[in-house]
Write a structure and sequence with these properties.
The protein contains ten helices and no strands. By secondary structure, the chain is mainly alpha-helical. Helix 1 crosses helix 3, helix 3 packs antiparallel against helix 4 and helix 9 crosses helix 10. The chain is globular and about 60 Å long. The relative contact order is 0.10.
């Protein structure tokens, strides 16, 4: 890897971590019906306003050993995990697409998907504005990734969202309206093959998570759980590694 590529990779990680910190704070404030534009970051326990050196993504949490500098209250590991959850895809976007238009486009999509996932986890709702924000990037992928045909994108738009809608009409609460809209937009972004992969991964991880919760007695049958985070994770993986995963799977059968 060339020195300039290493510099860009480090910058991508740093930018991703900062965006992850912002998105996480916005999701937490949205759950409390607070503005994420105004007001400085503060300790959720003692209300102490945090200084700049307490807000360095990941580093500050590790340096403070996961506790508030003032009241010593425990700080949830959710904060550094959210920062890493954005820093890692940021680096992978550059590794996957290098110096192409898809790199910034994929990064922006990853940030928005993280916002969707974190907000859904907190509120059990996906804001419509986040779905709308994904549309320009899905449209931009037509030019940034021309190897996926318009027909393939059109099929992808309906391949998962239409069956989800049909199931939601048959079984009340099977899928949320925003979940369906999310997969429609992401289906156009990915094309039909990667969309099917993304949904398969979401069902796999979501099903496993739901079963774990049931075995631990934290959820009962018929209780709802946020499926958006699993859809977002599936879309992210499919966008970055879908071609390799599908090729590897087909290769097992000599196809």
């Amino acid at each position: 890897m060339e020195p300039v590529e290493i510099i860009i990779l480090v910058f991508s990680c740093a930018l991703g971590a900062c965006m992850g910190s912002f998105v996480n704070a916005a999701a937490l404030r949205a759950a409390k019906k607070e503005s994420f534009v105004r007001g400085r970051s503060k300790c959720p326990e003692c209300g102490k306003t945090l200084r700049w050196f307490e807000l360095i993504p990941v580093v500050s949490w590790l340096a403070l050993r996961g506790r508030c500098r003032g009241c010593k209250a425990r700080i949830s590991p959710r904060y550094p995990l959210a920062e890493v959850a954005c820093a890692l895809p940021a680096a992978l976007c550059f590794i996957r697409y290098r110096f192409s238009l898809m790199t910034p486009l994929a990064f922006c999509v990853c940030v928005l998907l993280l916002a969707v996932a974190l907000t859904d986890m907190e509120t059990m709702e996906i804001p419509g504005v986040l779905i709308l924000a994904l549309i320009p990037f899905a449209a931009g992928a037509v030019w940034a990734q021309p190897d996926v045909t318009l027909l393939g994108r059109g099929i992808g738009l309906a391949a998962v969202s239409v069956p989800m809608l049909a199931l939601a009409l048959i079984i009340s609460g099977a899928f949320g309206e925003r979940d369906i809209e999310l997969m429609a937009v992401c289906g156009f972004l990915l094309g039909w093959q990667n969309t099917l992969l993304a949904f398969f991964l979401a069902v796999l991880t979501g099903g496993g998570y739901a079963m774990t919760l049931m075995l631990r007695g934290k959820k009962g049958r018929g209780e709802h759980m946020a499926f958006g985070p699993h859809l977002c994770a599936g879309v992210t993986v499919a966008m970055l590694f879908g071609k390799e995963i599908i090729s590897g799977y087909l290769g097992l059968f000599g196809l």
